[in-house]
Design brief:
By secondary structure, the protein is an all-alpha fold. The protein contains eleven helices and no strands. The protein has helices spanning about 1-10, 10-15, 15-50, 60-75, 80-85, 85-95, 100-125, 125-135, 140-180, 180-190, 195-225. Helix 3 (about 15-50) crosses helix 10. It starts with a helix and ends with a helix.
Length: about 230
């Protein structure tokens, strides 16, 4: 078996310790940035929804301002975003390379995406259920936490799952400009030195990560479906 692997992926075997280190960096980066971006994006998505026209706290100024800001951030290609916020990244974490350097642009890039995905997910909640809760005297906070979020939880899980999958791609992109992880490993040892087996194995690992996240998201969403 070892002989076969050595013949098929000789460079992967040679750089195996670096591959494990890169995989670990990707998992940490995606996990941390995904968690922080979700903490920011989830309330922003809820705020977008409830301040939208004809909703429970409709507010044209808040919704318009927030919507335009999110659209602006989402429209910036991630590679350009990394470069554009270098001073901000250095101010927040003190560096622009490695895991720390990748966290800030990843959060800034993904949080607006999560917010918009959550807004769309919660739009699927039956508006009649919200109106019924309001007619029964529920306050806006009670409607949000006792009706809107519980009813929309499966869709929220799907939205965050999609965002995490996008985040894997972003993290690989961040690796190409010093962010570490699998993207950095693939470019440094595979692309620059024409080691095709390293590129192929890196792509396979990324595909496996995406599949695992999608499967886990589907499983959790199914558990919350009622």
């Amino acid at each position: 078996m070892n002989t076969l692997l050595t013949e098929l992926v000789p460079n992967v075997i040679e750089y195996y310790p670096e591959l494990l280190k890169a995989l670990n960096e990707t998992l940490i980066t995606v996990g941390l940035s995904g968690f922080i971006a979700s903490l920011i994006g989830l309330p922003l998505g809820i705020l977008l929804l409830i301040t939208s026209p004809n909703h429970i706290l409709a507010n044209k100024v808040v919704y318009g301002t927030l919507s335009k800001l999110i659209n602006m951030l989402r429209s910036i290609p991630f590679v350009i975003l990394i470069a554009a916020i270098v001073p901000f990244t250095r101010l927040v974490v003190g560096t622009t390379i490695g895991i720390k350097g990748a966290l800030v642009p990843l959060v800034v890039g993904v949080a607006p995406f999560i917010a918009r995905q959550v807004e769309v997910a919660l739009h699927k909640v039956d508006h009649g259920v919200l109106e019924a809760a309001r007619a029964m005297g529920s306050s806006p906070l009670e409607i949000i936490f006792k009706v809107l979020i519980p009813e929309g939880l499966p869709n929220i899980v799907h939205a965050i799952t999609i965002s995490l999958i996008s985040l894997i791609g972003f993290s690989a992109m961040a690796g190409t400009v010093g962010g570490g992880g699998l993207g950095d490993f693939a470019i440094r040892y595979g692309y620059n030195f024409f080691k095709t087996d390293i590129m192929v194995v890196t792509v396979i690992i990324l595909l496996v990560l995406v599949t695992l996240i999608q499967s886990l998201g589907d499983f959790i969403a199914h558990k919350f479906t009622h």
